[in-house]
Specification:
The chain has 140 residues and is α+β, with helices and mostly antiparallel strands. 35% of the residues lie in helices and 29% in strands. It starts with a strand and ends in a 7-residue tail after the last helix. The protein binds flavin-adenine dinucleotide.
Length: 140
């Protein structure tokens, strides 16, 4: 059975841009092997990740991610059984808030800070749908 799990977390205070890139890289590599797809967003010190794949595999990965000391305050924001994947082309698309996509982040934020902890499921789904449609913005 296919599911999607979306969570947010705060990066640990001493995280470097290199470490964030490492996370994106290892995710892209590992997820190809395990059949996980999705997107990872990093902005204003907050990670927002959508994982999609077989239920048990997604749960196992989430358990591993929870133990990762590079982030904290992990909260599941959305969980759904799905008929098909949204991110078939991405083992883990990676997006950061660069000038080109600032408007996209602002569109879904109540303040000028990116704060997915305050987003409801509908907003999160709309945000990810927009990311998917604008894959040219995804940066490695
Ligand atoms: P390893 O060979 O164990 O490690 C790969 C690299 O990451 C090495 O350079 C290692 O030094 C470094 N590393 C590993 N664990 C840590 C740690 N706890 N603290 C600091 N450095 C570490 N993994 C996925 O496979 N798929 C994902 O989609 C995914 N998403 C993530 C999202 C976030 C926000 C975070 C923080 C982590 C994510 N990870 C993901 C990473 C995951 O937590 C594990 O670190 C990773 O899966 C370990 O992979 P490995 O055993 O193949 O690599």
């Amino acid at each position: 059975m296919l599911i999607q799990l979306t969570y947010a977390s705060r990066s640990s205070s001493d995280i470097t841009p290199e470490q964030v890139r490492d996370i994106a890289e290892i995710s892209q590599k590992n997820n190809v092997k395990t059949g996980i797809t999705g997107a990872l967003v990093f902005s204003d010190g907050i990670f927002l990740q959508k994982l999609e794949g077989e239920r048990q595999t997604v749960n196992q990965l989430y358990e591993k991610i929870l133990k990762d000391e590079r982030h904290e305050e992990t909260v599941i924001l959305d969980y759904a059984e799905i008929l098909s994947r949204d991110f078939t082309e991405w083992s883990m698309g990676f997006l950061t808030q660069i000038e080109d996509n600032r408007q996209l982040f602002q569109k879904y934020s109540a303040t000028n800070q990116f704060n997915p902890y305050q987003m409801n499921s509908a907003t999160l789904r709309a945000f990810f749908a927009e990311i998917r449609q604008n894959v040219r913005w995804l940066k490695r």
